[in-house]
Structure formats: C-alpha cells, structure tokens
Amino acid sequence: MPLDILIKLLSSIEEPLWIYDRFGQLAWSSPRARQVDNQPELPSPVPRMPEPCGLSGQPNFWLVGITGRLGDWLLVQQTNLPWRIAVFDDEQLIANTCGWQELFGLARPRLEPVSERRVRLKAPFSGLAEARASGLDDKALIALRRLQPINLLSRDRFNAQVDELLIEEATDGGIIYLSLTHLEIINSAHGAERIDPLLERMAESMSLQYRDALVCRPLGNAFALFLKGDEAALIARASELCERLVTLMRLDGKMLPVTARVGISLAPLHARRAYRLMHLAELAMLHGEHDDIDVCGPWHVFSPGAHMRHLNDYRLTSDLREHLEELDLAFQPQFDLVSGQAVGVEVLVRWDHPELGTIGPGRFIPLAEQYGLIGTVGARVMDTAFLATRDLVTPDGKPLSVAINVSAQEFRDPGFPVRVSEALARHDFAPERLELEITESSRVPDLDRVVERLTGLIDRGVRLAIDDFGTGFASLLYVRDLRACRLKIDQQFVRCLDHDSRDRAIVSHAISLADSLGMEVLAEGVETAEQERLLIEMGCHLVQGFRYARPKRLPELIEWLNRKPYIRPCAELRGE
C-alpha cells in the first residue's frame, strides 16, 4: 500500500489519531486530532514509515503508554514476542517492529499483562510491507488516544470488558465505586478549570497504580474500578484509594478538603453483569452516605438487606407524598396536679396506611426529613391541629393549649415562622395557645439564627418547649439560648423513678435547673402513683401519661372534655 494511501486511510478515521516516536514526540496527527488540539496544519514533508528493524528472533519489550501527551513509556514485561503495544483508552494498536507486514491491528487491554493467547486483532491493516521505505524512526508507535485520560474507559466499554471477564472467564472480583465529596465548594473556591486537571491526574494515577484494574469515570466526581479478588482484597484496595486522595488532591502545594464515599459490589455474589455490579456499588455508596456509616472506613459493601430497607423507605416516602390526607392526629391530655384539671394536649401524628396499617412518626418522619417532605408534612399537621382544636376549652372554660412537635429541619427553614403565622391567621388560632416542641435529639447547629427567626413568633405569645430533655444533643447553651418556656422530661427517666436513684437524681436536678431559669417542667410517661408522688416531692406539677389519659382521636377527645375530666389535686402543691 503506497504511503499516501495509508495516510489518507488514517486521516479518514473519525477518532483523533496521533503518531509518536519512542521519545514521545508527536510525529504526525490526523485532521481530527489537529482539530481537537487546535494545532497547525500537517507538517511537510509527512514522516514516512520505517524499514523493518532487523531484530527478528530477539527479545522485545511490551510497552504500555502512560501518557502520549508527556511521552512517558513504561517497561512492564519482557517477552520473546516481537510486538510493541501502546495503550490509550480501551484499545491497543499493535505493531510488529521486526516486520510491519506480519502484524498490525487492535487488541483489548486486560487485567493482566497481555499474553500471546489474549491478543485479539480488530480490523487489521494489510499490505504494509510497502511502507518500509518511509523513513520514520524504526521504533515509532501508532496510538489511538481519546480526550479521556489514558487507560480510562468509557462506561459502555468498561461494562463490556467486565462482562467478558465475568462471563467468558468466570472471574471473581468486584467493583469499587468512589465518589468525591465537597467538589462543588472546592470548584466555587478555586474554579472548575483548575480542579478538572486534578481529577484527570487522579484518574491517570489510578490507571498506573492499579495495572490489574479496569478503570472508568462514570460521573465527573466518581470513579469505578473492577478488580479481581474477594471482599477483603477489595476493601483493602478501597482503603488504600481513600488514603491516596490526600496526596493526589493538592493545589498550590496545599491539600484540598476532599473526602470520598466508597461502595463495593462483588461478583458473582451480588451480580454477574457489569452494569448491575456498577449500579449496586453506587447504591452501596449512597446507602453508606444516608446511613452515615463510617465505622470501619468510608467504604460500604453492598448488602441486599440494606438495599431492601432503602427500597421500602423509598416506596413508603412515595406513598406519603401522594397520600398526605391519610395522616391522622391523636391528642394526649396534659394535667396540672395543682388544679387537677387538663390544661392542654400534645398533638401526636399517625399515618393510617391502607396496606401497612398504622405507622408511627418514628418511622415516617425521618423519611420525610431525608426526602424533603418534612415542611409539607409539618404544614399539614399544623393546619389539621388548629382546625380541630380551635374551639376546645379546658373543663373550667379556658382555651386548651396545643403542643406540636417540630423537626429541627423546620426550625432551620427561614420560611417556617411565616408559615406558622399564616396558619394561625388562617384558622383564627390564638398564638398564646400554641407551644412548639423541638426534640432534644435534633441537632440545631445554627441555634442563634434559628432563635432570631423565631423572635417574632415568641413576641406574639407562641411558646417553645424542649421535648425529651436529657436524651439528646442539648447542652446548657442550648437550654439557655433557645428561649424555651418549658422542659419536658423524657419518660425514660420517669419510668424508673421509683427504683433507680440515678434517674431520681437526674430528674431532680433537671427540675431545679428549670426552676432556676424560670421554666416550667412537664414529666412525660407517668404511669404509677409512686412516680406521681416522687415528682410532686421534687416540685413538678405538670404531667402527661397513661395514669391520667391515653392519646385520643378528636371525637373521643371532645366527648372526654365534655365529661369535665378531673383528677384529685395534690394538697401539698396547693399549699394545704
């Protein structure tokens, strides 16, 4: 084949094509390559193909291209086979330096150094003997390079090669799916144009360090590796990868605050096809992120049980989004031991699911928070509660106070105070009757800002209470700064008052603390006369629990209030 025909053939290839010499210097590039690189026109004269090197029968080296841009080549294995290989993306162009006419074609890279058995030619060129008189360096290498980092596969080709290993060769292994965190913040601080090259170098480093791996970049902030080995081997590699992030992600000599979440899936345990393995590894990473699993490291091995739980959570959340009208409220009365009368109710939300039955808030409220539904659920509960209790009064004719639990997410929402004000106005509900409870187990990191937003509601008479006091994250600063009017002692401490001195000490000190700060105390979960007696001795006169009344649906609550419920007031608290 005349050289000009060969050049025309190479120039017609749609992919960018570069020719490098043994020193990595660009000797020729196709029109498409020059378009990509924005290079000048093809130099003249065009370099010519070499004569055979005359090394027939002597050992040669397999050469794997690290990067054609830098012209750096790595000797990876000695062999008697007379071939050279340059690896770019997922294809290898093989040329016989001891006689171009003998072998010239494409072969796939594998997890191990290429052997004679593994070479598979694709669309081989023929008639290259006439190119011997070309004049180009006899060690020239022809390499097909894409814009992706070298040895970094596209997702489709990654899946194809993994499938070949799993199906044709019955290889046991797995996929490590690594997702970088905080990239949005880092891009904003330094610019994506400076961070993207770091990610490319990271990909190249993975390809170099893990020669036994297939590597792809399915997303801009994610990498996937297929490796042979069992679960322990893949976990070791995952830990090693995360440690290397510190050294790879540096800019201007400083480490960037990049961390990673890693998911691992195993073949054939979890799946036998690449696309499924990739999906399960990504799911494992996401499950670890949602569950905040970081006990053994930033990696999480796929678990069918965990996956099923997350699927159920997703389905339940979808049902909740579509059927908010199925939320039902119950009201548990609160009593004052001084007067012996009911003074308020706590709103308890339940979900009457048509298939699963009654679902408690501990099951669906965290899902509403996780999937961004908590504001909608909270607004629904507040509207329903105001409408239901607007006209209810205590047995002595005073308006009944209403306590509604509010999640930390709602408190942090800048629009929350406006929604509360609008709901109060919409239902003509007096602000001083409303008590907003925040569970102490809820983190409120920006407490000062939250209190500032709630100031308008507090000034109008809305009261704040700290629910489940003593069981969560609240510090004394939390108690001091929230401007709460009431502490609610959790039933875990009340339940064992009569036989656990530690619980008695905790409750006693909580009551003293609240009294010193001018706050009321309400004890939850009171069930026995002895618990009541001890609370009275400690100075607590607001109570709630099965000893006095169970939660009631609205019709039952109205009927109960009409009977003017009354408990025997405590003479000691009345000063008698």
From TrEMBL:
Q: Please list which residues make up the signal peptide.
A: none
Domain (GGDEF) ranges: 171-304
Residue span, EAL domain: 309-565
InterPro entries, alphabetically?
A: Cyclic-di-GMP_PDE-like, EAL_dom, EAL_sf, GGDEF_dom, Nucleotide_cyclase, Rev_trsase/Diguanyl_cyclase
Name of one Pfam family that matches: EAL
One of the entry's Gene Ontology molecular-function terms is:
cyclic-guanylate-specific phosphodiesterase activity
Name of this protein: EAL domain-containing protein
The major lineage groups are: Bacteria, Pseudomonadati, Pseudomonadota, Gammaproteobacteria, Oceanospirillales
